[in-house]
Every structure is written in structure tokens, then in C-alpha cells.
Design goal:
The complex is a heterodimer. Chain A has a single domain, classed as Non-ribosomal Peptide Synthetase Peptidyl Carrier Protein, Chain A (Orthogonal Bundle). Chain A has 4 helices and no strands. Chain B is α+β, with helices and mostly antiparallel strands. Chain B has one domain: Thiol Ester Dehydrase, Chain A (Roll), CATH 3.10.129.10. Chain B is about 25% helix and about 35% strand. Chain B contains 4 helices and 5 strands; from the N terminus they run E-H-H-H-H-E-E-E-E. Chain B is elongated. The chains are: A mainly alpha, B alpha+beta.
Chain lengths: ~80, ~140
């Protein structure tokens, strides 16, 4: 599973949570450059990803993430362990 | 009032309580909200539309979802993040509602609880269903 694979897989989750059916997610996407990605939306996104991949994130794992690319790399690491 | 902490919670945990809807509650809600739509205020108008009586505001009965999380599950430390509610059947003054909810997901990182909740009337008919997102405060 590559970073691009993960970004493609989580794009529908972002579209659903942010209510933006045309949102195009890239590795550089983050809360500063995606509309409506606020703190509550962020929690909803994380929960949607946890559900989708059946993983649980620790707060420490999430705090260092700077963008969707980092999130994708975290997902790859978490799913490789499970 | 319950005072459940994060360590007390688990998926599948549930709570319920009963609540009655009264004419006075409809009138008070109309005064508070300014929603004076005749469906809620005028029995003749509601009956002409096929309803048994004036219909209770959906947002009035939905207020019990606030009670569910703020008083029962988890109670004192709750911070309501969102409620996604679907209305399934009308509620009338005189109805007695059973409000119930169950934890369906726990997000450890942000201490967020998801509840699936529903209200049924005294005939056992589901009048609304909701998905509720609740944060758990520490202090």
C-alpha cells in the first residue's frame, strides 16, 4: 500500500465529513488549505479513518502530523502492524 | 446525574429514561424559539393536514437527546459536539417517550464518544433516531 493508495482511499472520508463532494486531496492538504477542516471536523475525520481501517490512534501519533501525506504514512505503519 | 469518566465507558454501554410531552411544553417552546407555525400551534390546522392533534416540535423532543448525554451517558463531563437526528413519526402532547442511547464508538485520542440513540412513544413506535457525538471533558 503506497501513500497515494491511502490518499485515494481516504479521500471519500474527507469528502463526506467536510461535505465537499469535489474535494481533491493531496499529500500537502492540511487544515490550513482545506475549507472547513476545523477542530471538530478533524476529530470526525480521525474517527472515520479509524473506522475505515479498524485502527486506533494515540493522541501522540496524531499530534505530529502536518498534512494528509503524514496521515497516510501513519496509516501505512498502523495497518502493517495489525 | 451520572458522572462517568473515560475509564468507565465501553462500546455497548447504554442508558435510557422516560419523558412526557405536555401542551405547556409546546407553548413554552414556541415562545422561546419564535416558531409559531400553525402545525404546532393550531389543532384544527394540524387535523386538517391529517395529524391527530397539533404536532410537537421536532427540536423540542430532540432536546431530550441533550438530556441523554448531559445527565445519563456520560453525564456531568459531557460536551455535546453534534446531533444528527431523523424524525420518523409525529409526537403529540400527552405522549410519553422512552429515550435510549448506546455507545457505538470510542475515540481514545480525542476522548470522543459516539452514541446511537432513539425515542419511542408509549405505543413502542420509533419517533426519532439520532447519531450523537459527545466529547468528554476532564474538568
Amino acid at each position: 500500500m503506497t501513500q497515494a493508495d491511502v490518499i485515494q482511499a481516504i479521500q471519500p472520508l474527507f469528502r463526506d465529513v467536510l461535505d465537499q463532494p469535489d474535494l481533491l486531496l493531496t499529500a500537502d492538504s492540511n487544515a490550513s488549505n482545506v475549507d472547513d477542516w476545523d477542530s471538530l471536523a478533524h476529530i470526525n475525520i480521525v474517527m472515520a479513518i479509524e473506522r475505515h481501517y479498524k485502527v486506533k490512534f494515540a493522541l501522540g501519533e496524531l499530534q505530529g502530523l502536518k498534512n494528509v501525506g503524514d496521515m497516510a504514512e501513519l496509516i501505512i505503519r498502523k495497518t502493517a502492524k495489525s | 446525574m451520572n458522572e462517568l469518566r473515560w475509564s468507565d465507558l465501553s462500546v455497548g454501554m447504554s442508558a435510557h429514561f422516560d419523558a412526557a410531552i405536555t401542551e405547556e411544553m409546546l407553548d413554552t417552546f414556541a415562545a422561546l424559539s419564535g416558531d409559531v407555525n400553525p402545525l404546532h400551534m393550531d389543532a384544527a390546522f394540524a387535523k386538517a393536514g391529517g395529524f391527530r392533534d397539533r404536532v410537537a416540535f421536532g427540536m423540542l423532543s430532540s432536546a431530550f437527546y441533550s438530556t441523554l448525554v448531559g445527565v445519563h451517558l456520560p453525564g456531568k463531563w459531557a460536551l455535546l459536539h453534534g446531533v444528527d437526528v431523523e424524525f420518523k413519526a409525529p409526537v403529540y402532547a400527552g405522549d410519553r417517550l422512552r429515550v435510549s442511547g448506546e455507545i457505538t464508538f470510542l475515540n481514545e485520542a480525542y476522548r470522543r464518544i459516539e452514541l446511537k440513540a432513539r425515542m419511542t412513544n408509549h405505543s413502542g413506535q420509533t419517533v426519532s433516531k439520532a447519531t450523537i457525538q459527545v466529547g468528554l471533558r476532564e474538568s
